Amino acid sequence: MRVTHRFASRSYSTLNLAKASSKSVFPNERYFKPEIVTGEVPGPKSKELLQNLNNVQDLRTTHFVSDYSKSSGNYIADADGNIYLDTFMQISSIPLGYNHPALIEAAKSEEWVTTAINRPAVGINPSSDYYKLLMDSYMRVAPKGLTQVQPLSTGSEAIENAFKAAFMWYQQNQRGGPTQPFSKEDLDSCMANSAPGSPQLSILSFSTCFHGRSMAALSVTRSKALHKVDIPAFDWPVAPFPHLKYPLDQYEKENRATEDACLAEVEKIIKSCTKPGRYGPVAAVVVEPVQAEGGDRHASPYFFQSLRRITKEQGVIFIVDEVQTGGGGTGKFWAHEHWDLQDSPDIVCFSKKLQAAGFFYKKELTPNMGYRIFNTWLGDPLRALQLRTIIDVIEKDDLLKNVNETGRVLFDGLRQLEKTYGHKGLIKNVRGKGCFGAFDCKDPATRDALIMELRRRGVEAGGSGESTIRLRPALVFTSKHAEIFLNILNECMSKL
Fold it and tell me: Where residue 323 sits, what CATH number does that domain have?
């Protein structure tokens, strides 16, 4: 069976969509539309390869087995020769699409080769050009107010070490500042995992949040039981995250009351934990700009501004987890830029679309001694080279402008589909910024059926929460790709 997609008879290109340039921002994109050539998805070759892979690694979460050599721009190829329009981009982690010419050219350079085959232990032997590389990559996109960066390897590792930085800052303040030495009791007791050297402190997170799958990150993750079950966890406090009603402009009064109630609970928890007790004092609050794994749940700038105010007043570190939202998908490089904060976060964690991981932080959070936030590699200079090229392309091709223009087309189309199919429970609560968006279905079964129907018709999409479909296209996703997606989504909904 061969299924290709052109604009359907009810083509969204003929409707009253917001206008955006259809100019390609991916040079010589190889494909013009999805193409499914197998009778089912995943196809027979994908299934065979996956069976082999599962003999040595547990990959039961696989959508299909990909062929990255044949993937191009916004299109991903699978092992069977199927071509999909990718609106999910490896869980929001591909910024420039597949096989971008600028990255291919950069990878041919002697600089890339030398860096790739000589991965240094940066903490003890950084290269002579490492400072310049840091300034040309990470520090070019450092969030306002944050002057330090700690490169690491994964988003979870960034979260774990951000917590360590917050705890060390808190204890330094308790001792009277970073120049005050550890006591003998501190040093002896920590080796027995006891206070005062191993203090009872906590991190406050929010209901339905996700911050990673490593140990401390799991302790603040609240989105899905399957992530957490059987794993020991820190007994740390959780506050309610606002559950807003959509459309937001029609429920401003109700949503403000919901946010105020959540903020009051945050302040109450922090104040109640000032002395050792069940949780211990709160050293930091960690929050996502959008609760992505939790179902793309949003809050208003007012909520985050108030959260920043509360943490500042209570002497608590404010950590913003931009692992999924950072890198431009929301139309600004950092999603928290949409909040218009008067005082920046203390720590911003990143990964995914930056193709590198770590956290930015304020200088006063620098540990009092070396080796306190440390591992063998402290990131990977090769990823810094990759990020440098990514930033070059974002700037040269004005990709944030493209994201915002395409987002208007995308969301205009989704809202029109909501009017058409909302009564069937196929699409409701359309929301997002830039091209970082989502909508809900009436129940998990409907959501899963719609994702599978999209895949059968050549669109790769992802779910989250209980019944949400989330969209995470690359920064090179244009109005042309948005219209193809909307037409296929329309076809799918008309069949369900």
Answer: 3.40.640.10
- 352 catalytically annotated: yes
Backbone angles phi, psi at 86, to 5 degrees: -95, 105
Model pTM score:
0.95
224 is catalytic: no
Element (H, E) at 397: none
Neighbours of 55 (CB within 10 A): 7
At 88, which helix (H) or strand (E)? Answer: none
Catalytic residue among 78, 296, 321, 380: 321
Compute how many other C-beta atoms are within 10 angstroms of the C-beta atom of residue 470. Answer: 24
- Choosing from 210, 318, 360, 436, the catalytic residue is 210
Q: Which of 352, 353, 433, 480 is catalytic?
A: 352
**What is the reported pLDDT for 2?**
52
Residues paired with residue 347 on neighbouring β-strands, in sequence order? 319, 361
Please state, in angstroms and rounded to a whole number, the distance separating the CA atoms of residues 377 and 391: 23
Quick check: is 256 in a domain?
Answer: yes
Alpha helices, DSSP H, located in 101-242: 101-107, 110-117, 130-136, 155-175, 184-190, 215-219, 225-228
Count up the domains in the chain and report the number. 1
Q: Is the pLDDT of residue 177 over 50?
A: yes
Q: pLDDT by residue (tens digit) across 378-392?
A: 999 999 999 999 999
Element (H, E) at 288: none
**Which single residue is written with the structure tokens 């959070």?**
365
Residue 92 belongs to some domain of the structure = no
Task: Give 1's pLDDT tier (boundaries 50, 70, 90).
Answer: very low
Rg (CA), the chain: 23
One-letter amino acid at 22 equals S
Q: Which two tokens stand for residue 384?
A: 């810094």
Residue 266 lies in a domain: yes
- 321 among known catalytic residues: yes
67-73 long-range contacts, Cβ below 8 Å, gap at least 24?
68/98, 68/99, 70/30, 71/98, 71/99, 72/26, 72/29, 72/30, 72/31, 72/97, 72/98, 72/99, 73/26, 73/29, 73/30, 73/31, 73/97, 73/98, 73/99, 73/100, 73/474, 73/476
What local confidence, expressed as pLDDT, does residue 5 receive? 45
For the stretch 184-209, pLDDT in tens is 999 999 999 999 999 999 999 999 99
Active site (annotated) includes residue 406: no
Catalytic one of 376, 401, 443, 495: 376
- Beta pairing partners, 148: 361
How far apart CA 291 and CA 288 sit, in angstroms, is 6
The whole-number average pLDDT for the span 287-311 is 97
Domain extent at residue 225: 119-395
